[in-house]
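Record 1 of the preview.
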Amino acid sequence: MIEPRLPRYHSGQRVKAAIDLLNDGSFPDASPEECLVSVGHVGEIVQIGRHTEANLFIYMVDFGKQLVVGCIEEEISAF
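->
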């Protein structure tokens, strides 16, 4: 059984990209593997979801210019 835990980050928190965030196919207007957000770019968490099977929190991060990207904890860090 997977133990429940709290998310590392919270809604409204400013975070920065810990790695280059590449298009995984979620953005049809961008080419596959195109860099959507460069490392160090700052955004704000607007929503937090959870992938229950993988026991992962998914953070919807608004990086501006109408670019909201789903990130896991290893892809972002506190600002």
